[in-house]
Amino acid sequence: MLSRSIHRGALSVLFLALLAAGCSGGRHETTETYYLVASNIDLPYWKAALAGLHRAAGDLKVKAEMAGPSTYNPKEQRDMFRTIVAKKPSGILVSVADPELLRGEINAAIAAGIPVITLDSDAPASQRLFFIGTNNHQAGMTGGRVLAERMHRKGNIVVFSIPAQNNLVERLRGYEAALANTEIKILQTVDVHGDPTVAFDKTMEMLDSQKLKVDGFVCLEATAGKEVADVLARRKVEGKIVIAMDTDEGTLDWIEKGGIAATVAQKPFTMAYYGLRVLDDLHHNKPAKLDSNWSQDLQSPLPAVIDTGSALIDKSNVSAFRKAAGNPARTPATLAWLHRGFEKTR
């Protein structure tokens, strides 16, 4: 009950911020520029986020750009973040590849008076203002419950992840919580380093190994699921359960073909859209101090977290999901269907 109240309170704060932004159409300067700094920006996930960023920028009549390495490269992301801070932007959204590597950079931006909000992947030990994105622990529990059901609560699994990323750490904890009272064991966790070929090659190795008996594969990031499904299909291996993450076309194709049992969908468009609008409001209504300890301030004007929701996609609803997601008009009926789907898994 408490977490639900906090979530509703956060949304109330956000609604007021958006209302203020929507009622002040003439307040923007021509120099006002915002950035979204991500990693692996060529992924379909970040293309969806970029669409949300552009939509919000168009609504607000401001400039917004996405930057970041085209592969998983935390050091390059840090260097790009540092370069953007030097430009003195109006605000920054950042999906943090390595929270320890970026903590000092985020703190430096805050000290320079630049609002920073983490998006998708958090840096909780930094002075970022708050986090907007998926409740990743809940997303992991959603995937874990499906995995337990499909595996009849017993067997061995392998997890593909990027252990340095805070969001994937939280997803794994969610899986562990969901599997706590089962006989499902995690044999190993593979660091894919954001490279889909690692998932492909490691799956091949596991199938060739006489030592490992793997019954299921859990993919905590977007690229591994379809690689695992591809290997299993090539080797004509049946009966393995694959749970993926996110909704790129390859993942959805494998769900329709039965190679992936389910995937947990996120809302990157919404993260970027709302993130930019809140940054805009913070730029025009900046707190007296950005580096206050907002998490311990019971009268803080800022929420700690904005949960954008997640949804389970499997063979029963993948066609409807594709139809809704591919409709640029976003009719009321479509939006209602999407809303119900995401609310179910919170």
What are the key terms here?
single chain; 346 residues; alpha/beta; Rossmann fold; 2 domains; 6-stranded parallel beta sheet; 6-stranded mixed beta sheet; 12 helices; 47% helix; 17% strand; elongated; disordered C terminus
Which runs of at least 5 residues are low in confidence (pLDDT < 50)? Answer: 1-9, 18-25, 328-346
CATH class of the largest domain: Alpha Beta
For the termini, the CA-CA separation is: 13 Å
- Lateral strand order in the biggest sheet: 2-1-3-4-5-11
Please state the second-level CATH architecture of the largest domain: 3-Layer(aba) Sandwich
Anisotropy-based shape: elongated
CATH topology of the largest domain: Rossmann fold
Secondary structure: number of strands: 12
What do we call the CATH homologous superfamily of the largest domain?
Answer: Response regulator
Strand coverage percent:
15-25%
As for the number of domains, it is: 2
Mean pLDDT: 88
Q: Could you give a short account of the major beta sheet?
A: 6 strands, parallel
**Separate helix tally:** 12
Structural class: alpha/beta
